[in-house]
Amino acid sequence: MATAYLSSTPHKIAVLHAKALGDFIVTLPALAAIKETYPNAELVLLARPWVKDFLAVRPSVVDRVISVPVLAGVNDSVEGGRANNTGPKVDSAEVELFYQAMRAEKFAVVIHMQGSGKAANPFINKLGAALTAGTRNAAAEPIDRFIPYVHYQSEILRNLEIAALIGARTANLEPRLEVTETDEQETAPLGEIIKGRPYVVIHAGADDMRRVWPAAKFADVADSLIERGYEVVLTGTPKEEDIVTNVLQAMKHTAIPCTSLALGGLAALLQKSALVISNDTGPLHLARAVGAPTVGIYWAPNVLNWGPLNRNRHRLAIGWQLECPECGIKPVSPWPFQPVTSSCEHLYSFVESIAATEVLELAAELLPPATA
Fold first, then answer.
1. pLDDT tens digits, the chain, 372 residues: what are they?
2. CATH 3.40.50.2000 assigned to 12-166
């Protein structure tokens, strides 16, 4: 495993990261490190189409985004986890055309920042780069430079360690994203409702119900914050409208539902909030990247990978229950719920034991006094 600087200045560096929002956010310091170290190299991100759209309208260290076609383990699901069988299917012809186009790019370096290398390493090895780098476990295909994939590591620090394989360094460890004027304009209708009053954003959804805090407890927190003089905005994706409705129905007071903002508008809404309270999911990471203070609701094992690096503006409410409530299995080896086994596929919240009072106490540490 080599960790030296590259022997010559690369003209073009590609980074593969074709996963979800939170996974993308934690690559930002590593991408910045590469650009700081090799400012004259074109930095190309191989990603999902939404990343291309999102970065096209805001300043970024990424020079160009190329959309990656659907390919098992690369951009269809978390490597080694539950397959996503509801999305587009693999188009072999499209994948082969993609490989040909990438070889024509003549990348000096291709790096991957996703998973153990089981799927990503064969993928990047087909792109024709002079040098490949990333993570690798014993079963993965060899690449030129790698660090071992050990699951329980901060994803931010893991990605920085991967960037260091080509000598890339940075002093800025926290993810950062810029909010644009267009993003802010998208939130104008909400601004008319909020009318300049301080507000807290609550995000009660997540892709995996095992890390979803109960709607009734989010409702208790929202009611308490409203009684302290804050507006509460309940955010969610369109598919999370039922979750937002459940929180609203459990509340004594009235909150503002918001499930229609695009990602840029959500970033602007989060940035101007007094606080964001959220399950461990993409919008929580987005909130941190745009500078909002946060209270994150975490299952204990996931803190190691997805918790923030600092506690100046961020707090963690941690669920310490490790056993499945139905069968008693501890689904943490080799990492949480991966691989999926027939011995434990029971879908329970592993964070429901966190008390609403705990979340409110953590929120109080970060919130300024509100004026009713």
1. 444 677 788 999 999 999 999 999 999 999 999 999 999 999 999 999 999 999 999 999 999 999 999 888 888 654 333 344 455 677 889 999 999 999 999 999 999 999 899 999 999 999 999 999 999 998 999 999 999 999 999 999 999 999 999 999 999 999 999 999 999 999 999 999 999 999 999 999 998 888 899 999 999 999 999 999 999 999 999 999 999 999 999 999 999 999 999 999 999 999 999 999 999 999 999 999 999 999 999 999 999 999 999 999 999 999 998 888 778 778 777 677 655 556 677 778 889 999 999 999 999 999 987 654
2. yes
| Domain layout of the chain by residue ranges | 12-166, 181-366
Same fold, 12-166 and 181-366: yes
Is the pTM for the entire model greater than 0.85? yes
- Evaluate whether the domain defined by 181-366 bears CATH number 3.40.50.2000: yes
Count Cα neighbours of 171 within 13 Å in the Cβ-side half-sphere.
Answer: 0
Strand partners, 282: none
Which residues have C-beta within 8 Å of that of residue 96, sequence separation ≥ 6?
none
